[in-house]
Design a protein that fits this description.
Helix content is 39%, strand content 16%. By secondary structure, it is of the alpha/beta class. It has a single domain, classed as Vaccinia Virus protein VP39 (Rossmann fold, 3-Layer(aba) Sandwich), CATH 3.40.50.150. Helix 1 runs parallel beside helix 5 and helix 3 runs parallel beside helix 4. The two termini are 38 Å apart. The strands form two sheets. It has a seven-stranded mixed β-sheet, with helices on both faces. A four-stranded antiparallel β-sheet has the order 1-2-3-4, with helices on one face. Strand 6, helix 5 and strand 7 form a beta-alpha-beta unit. The protein has eleven helices and eleven strands.
């Protein structure tokens, strides 16, 4: 399933000056500053900065290889083929990342349903055809869930390779979603382009999380709602990137040493506590900030050890007890965030 999108009607603008874009199938040209941006595999490349892990040349090569294999592979096989050819990812990380990517569909459905329930207390605006921008979409489980539930979803990621995978995943899901390659810190959209912006595990991976929040505020406009999930820096559970218990408590030099010894890629990230997250959101003109604890889906629990599954069961029970839930929030693995643009 492939569509030629009317990028102007989606609010897509020049990332350099926010000027209107003249579109052809091969490129987009800014009418104001004359900057030209290529359209690769049907995806506009509007990046102004680097992917934290790959150069543009390496990302393009990976995306081209995936686009070629996508003609004969299903999504699961295509995803596995990417990791199998990535020398920077250890076998243990391959298993961790692959399982997380496949399980993300179920998690995104549950998370989106929670956000929508919270929304009923804040707005009467219908979701049907309102724009939801999925920032840092990766393989687009959230965008796919949103499209199925009536939103006009747009997926955005700094990695072109992920967007090739996202398009394959969306095709198999039977939904048509426009994808844009861009940086979260310089969003190529006009002011107020989206009614909602969502991001699963994007904020901690942004090169400048505070700038990304200011850009999200601009693109949402007044009254727009921001939905995020992000790991808790003070979690006592497994580190989301390295797997060690209570990784956010470790000194950075210890974590780097552990990653080096284990042959793992050390993540470029900034983890938040509930307090630092709340302050960053308020500084970016967000109010009505709610930081809650998400449920853990069956798909997420499936590959965990018996000890971890038992801990997850206890977590699900304790978080529903008011006093204990407040204590748990300080050391829980993940935060579910909702905020309103003022």
């Amino acid at each position: 399933m492939t569509s030629e999108w009317d990028w102007a009607s989606l609010g897509v603008r020049c990332p350099r000056c926010l000027g209107a874009l003249h579109a052809t199938p091969e490129w987009l040209e800014c009418i104001a500053c004359t900057a030209i941006f290529p359209v690769l595999f049907g995806i506009p490349d509007l990046r102004t900065g680097q992917d934290p892990y790959l150069s543009k040349a390496d990302d393009l090569a990976a995306a081209a290889a995936l686009a070629s294999r996508a003609k004969t592979m299903d999504f699961r096989s295509l995803l596995a083929s990417y990791y199998e050819t990535n020398a920077k990812v250890s076998p243990s990380q391959v298993a961790l990342f692959t399982h997380g990517t496949i399980a993300a569909g179920d998690r995104a459905e549950r998370t989106l349903a929670t956000w929508e329930r919270q929304d009923t207390h804040a707005t009467t605006r219908p979701r049907e055809r309102a724009t939801l921008l999925d920032v840092g979409c990766g393989t687009a489980p959230l965008a796919i869930a949103a499209a199925r539930r009536g939103w006009r979803a747009i997926g955005l990621d700094v990695g072109l390779r992920w967007l090739v995978l996202a398009r394959k995943r969306a095709d198999e899901a039977g939904v048509d979603i426009p994808f844009v390659c861009a940086n979260a810190e310089v969003l190529p959209f006009c002011d107020g382009a989206a009614a909602r912006a969502g991001g699963e595990s994007i904020l901690e991976n942004a090169s400048d999380p505070d700038q990304a929040l200011h850009e999200l505020a601009r693109v949402l406009g007044r009254g727009g709602r921001l939905w995020l999930t992000t790991p808790n820096k003070r979690s006592l559970g497994p580190d989301p990137h390295l797997g060690v218990m209570a990784g956010g408590w470790w000194p950075e030099r210890w974590l780097k040493r552990h990653a080096e010894r284990a042959g793992k890629v050390y993540p470029r990230r900034r983890l938040f506590t509930a307090g630092t997250l709340h302050r960053s959101l308020e500084a970016a003109d967000f109010a009505q900030v709610m930081i809650e604890l998400p449920d853990v889906s069956e798909a997420q629990k499936a590959s965990q050890s018996l000890v971890i599954r038992s801990a997850i069961g206890a977590y699900q029970l304790v978080k529903r007890v008011p006093v204990a839930g407040r204590v748990l929030r300080s050391v829980a693995p993940t935060y579910l965030v909702t905020a309103t643009r003022t």
